Amino acid sequence: MQFKVGDIVDGKITGITNFGVFADIGEGKSGMVHISEIAHTYVNDIHEHVKENDVVKMKVLSIGEDGKISLSIKRAISPEKTEERPRRERKTYQAPKPDNSYTWTPKKQEPVSFEEMMNQFKLSSDEKFSDLKRKNPETRRCKRGANAR
């Protein structure tokens, strides 16, 4: 039987390295499964997923001109049903309040006109300047020449 890309084959693990596993897929052919193709989750230690002499279903990913066969275990099996989490709303940053606490508010979904954006900017800018003036009343600007040092 000739192997082609996309075939699902049974492979016997013949060697384990820190970057993947080697498998005998029959007819005197062997291939390699890269560590990223072992499982649908992050693989820190390959030995937690497979052991030598295990027979595992594998998918043929590619066959090089030199005869090297690239295999995948995770693509041969369907991923475990994962619980779908609800999507979170995007949030926008608001400037700190006078007590230095920060607040996060959900971002508006409807488009905002340029004028509305400018008005919001002016309001927030005025608030920031008034907070600064309140905190540092001595740092007000004076006219040129008057009270110059």
What do you see in this structure?
- The structure is a single chain.
- The protein is an alpha+beta fold and about 150 residues long.
- It has two domains: about 10-70, OB fold (Dihydrolipoamide Acetyltransferase, E2P) (Beta Barrel), CATH 2.40.50.140; about 90-140, no CATH class.
- About 15% of the residues lie in helices and about 30% in strands.
Write the layout of secondary structure elements.
Elements: E1 8-16, E2 20-26, E3 29-34, E4 55-63, E5 69-72, E6 91-93, E7 104-106, H1 114-135
Parallel strand pairs: 3-5
Antiparallel strand pairs: 1-2, 1-4, 2-3, 4-5, 6-7
Notable characteristics:
149 residues; alpha+beta; OB fold (Dihydrolipoamide Acetyltransferase, E2P); five-stranded mixed barrel; two-stranded antiparallel sheet; 1 helix; 15% helix; elongated
